[in-house]
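Chains adopt folds. We examine one example:
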Amino acid sequence: MNRFPLPFFILAAALLLTASDTRAELRAGTAAVDITPDQWPLAPRGSFHPRPTDSAHDPLKVRCLVLDDGKTRIALAVVDSCMVHREQLDPAKAAAAKATGIPVEHMLVSSTHTHSAPFANASHGTPQELAYRKKLIAGITAAIVEAAAKLQPARAGWSGHDLPDEVFNRRWFLQPGTMPLNPFGEDTDIVKMNPPRDPKVLINPAGPTDPEVSVLYIEDAKGKPLSVFANYSLHYVGNTGGQMSADYYGEFARLMPVRMGRAADGFVAMMSNGTSGDINNINFTDPRPRREPFEQIRIVASKTADAATRAIRHIDRKSADLSLAMTQRAITLKHRAPTPEQIARARNIIKVDAEAEKKLPRLAKAYAERTLALAEKPETTQVLIQAIRIGDLALCTLPFEVFAEIGLELKHRSPAADTFVVELANGGYGYLPTPGQHRFGGYETWLTTNKVQKDASVILVDNLVEMLGELFP
């Protein structure tokens, strides 16, 4: 005789089916595709006055990790580029989606922000640039497609390790009377980017740093390392001797197989850029000795690789049973509009000769040209932001050079157990200061360096927190 009524068995069976149906067995695939230029000369993107070069010191690559829990697939790709715009990313994602079935909304493609990579958008329209743009777009597509084709059973874990001695806030309050005019001829700035290394001039930094080297670690079914997706809030290091280079991001990727020792075939490590819009590698109060080209890149890469390795050692659980989710929003922001007076001044400045230009504030002509270009832009622009769930880990993305305090706020407000913030993801729209930092002025807040409305960071952070709340109820 049955001790339990029939509805009990129906409910129990339903619960068992539901549990089986929602079980998430992780699979992962990796790829690294070379996008080093084939045709020279090319100018690097990260300079007001770039000088063409005809060689690369080390390869530029697109590195990709695809994850699949049986229901959802996501692609995490990192490109060795200063920034890649939607004009290049959208066709690359569309082609990858057609080949793999991964929705474009489930693709995170970010740039490392190396300043020694070519213009992604063929800004000058030279044959070499056009050839490179074609190779870049094809490389992004190929990396996602190849990684998706190599899915295998995997386990994942995540952790972090602080590396505070290589990150410095580059915005400083200066002693009264020591602040130069900005490119618009104004004396309104009270913060200086990259100030003199002079204790008589410096007061204190204008913001915090985020010292964490965050790591998403993937291993195969046999326990061999398969991928490391790292994140550190540090601008490029530079001093590449005029050659193209992936900077410390590429050197980190080269070193991690050494740190892992018994890495699986196809192991791929990548370093994404955290919120480093106001952070660089310069100690302003205790300047380091001079370095030869690439020496400091190697030092920073070695230390971040060590930190990532220590983080991996501290992962207490690596799971093959976790779920994935990803959401994306398109947010409309207003472009900052130059005033009629700023436009008139800019038109006058671009007409001056070289001798007259010497009497103007530094970069006045460059910003005059940028001001006129901004005046021609539409009233608004649409940017993409993303939130990703990998078990109890959250990833957030922003298509800007983001101030460190914004990343720290997102980490603090996130409902996830751990959170990484990836900048310059899915586009590049200039700097993203907070409203408070706008009041301080300085390079990152100048018109055209910062192109969108001054409260954009508030809008974007609030949206991301809401999106995380949907993924982590």
Remarks:
- The chain has a mean pLDDT of 94.
- The chain has eleven helices and 19 strands.
- The chain has two domains: 24-166+210-326+388-434, 338-375.
- The first strand starts at residue 27 and ends at 34.
